[in-house]
Amino acid sequence: MRLDIGPILSTLGRHKLTATLIVLQIALTCAILCNATFLIGDRLRWMQSASGIDDDRIVRLMVSDIGPRTDTHARIEADLAALRAVPGVEAATVTNSLPFGPSSWSTPVRLTRDQSMPSVEAGAYYGEAVGETLGLRLVAGRFIRSDEYVWVDDHAAKQVRGSPVVVVTQALAQRLFPGQPAVGRTIVIGDEEFRIVGVVERLARAGDQNRAGVYETLLLPWRMVTAYGGGFAVRARPGEAGKVLQSAAAALKAVDPRRVIVEKRLYTEVRDRYFATDRATTVLLVGVCVALLVVTALGIVGLASFWVAQRRRQIGIRRALGASRTDVLRYFQTENFLLASMGIVLGMVLAYAINLLLMREYALPRLPLGYLPVGALVLWLLGQAAVLAPARRAASVPPVVATRG
């Protein structure tokens, strides 16, 4: 016996409140599921962002000296010499920050001196041979030479000017000079003009969760000092980062036993700390999605079971008139499909409304259309799976039930 949609809709019309509640539940689940899935994917992509450096080979150490020191530059040179002598160390320097690290340094960049507003606020890295130490990939020009560096504290005191050269990332070069080669061009930082001598493939900025300009960074020709908040960055040979970290800390203590090692971490640990909030948010959103799907499935099972109990005599009459078990099973599955479809249509509208709110309040990107059919498919499959057990119980009702009562 073929089922007609009309009788199903007529039956649902006699149970308006119950049907409306399940439709609203499915709609809310659809809206939240689409947006939560989108946010989960967005967070996962963000957490997998490339830093641009040799993640598995970099270690970071922060030190604090006891008492005032007047021989800052000489002490840093001695520390670096000790670190470079550690077995397994390939390079070492003092830098102001690391990609996805806790401390953010930035500088406004202009194209001309008379430009009133900066073209971009770029992430800034200080430290001699930072690019070479971190393992950046040069795609044009060259790195800053050793003779072009000056100490950052001398530069800040305006005792020396240093060579006006700078290395930028591809992202920053494209932002400043779209479709044009950047090497040889000049930019203005502060009141100084700098000539771009090299372009590196990628280098993420530190401390800032703003993703739009995460790779718009540059390397300045200033040797960093620990007194300005700098830390030691060491590149180890492959597979030796853990051993080098312990040996490097011991080497620094050997140079000055009174100093305090404030921090010693593998770069992978630095990166994990940066993305800890994103990771927790992702776990929370996954939990919300699972909880919503479970609650929705239980709601469908409860409603279907209730309706089966209410309609036992109606089902018996249909069986007595010739309906097969398959017909009864298909009836309840079709009924659930219609309810799910109404909820999904309403949920898609609600999903976009929630996304527009998130875009306005939290500057999130627009929800891609591809998430809507995926969410619809999940809810359709969930509905069919949830109604299957009650529908099978309905299909097992014998025709003799029609003669009772």
Elements, N to C (H/E): HHEHEEEHEEHEHEEEEEHEHHHHH
Radius of gyration: 32 Å
Tally the beta strands: 13
Spatial order of the strands forming the largest sheet = 3-4-10-7-9-8
Word description of this protein:
This protein has 405 residues and is α+β, with helices and mostly antiparallel strands. Helix content is 50%, strand content 17%. It is built from 12 helices and 13 strands. Strand 8 and strand 9 (192-200) form a beta hairpin. The protein starts with a helix and ends in a 10-residue tail after the last helix. The model has no long low-confidence stretch (mean pLDDT 90).
Short description:
By secondary structure, the protein is α+β, with helices and mostly antiparallel strands.
Can you give keywords for this protein?
405 residues, alpha+beta, elongated, 13 strands, 12 helices
Write the layout of secondary structure elements.
Elements: H1 5-13, H2 16-47, E1 58-64, H3 72-84, E2 89-95, E3 106-110, E4 120-125, H4 130-134, E5 138-141, E6 150-151, H5 152-156, E7 165-169, H6 170-176, E8 186-189, E9 192-200, E10 217-219, E11 222-223, E12 231-236, H7 241-255, E13 260-266, H8 267-274, H9 276-310, H10 312-320, H11 325-362, H12 371-395
Parallel strand pairs: 4-10, 6-11, 7-9
Antiparallel strand pairs: 1-12, 1-13, 2-12, 3-4, 3-8, 5-9, 7-10, 8-9
Helix pairs in contact: 2-9, 2-11, 2-12, 3-7, 9-12, 11-12
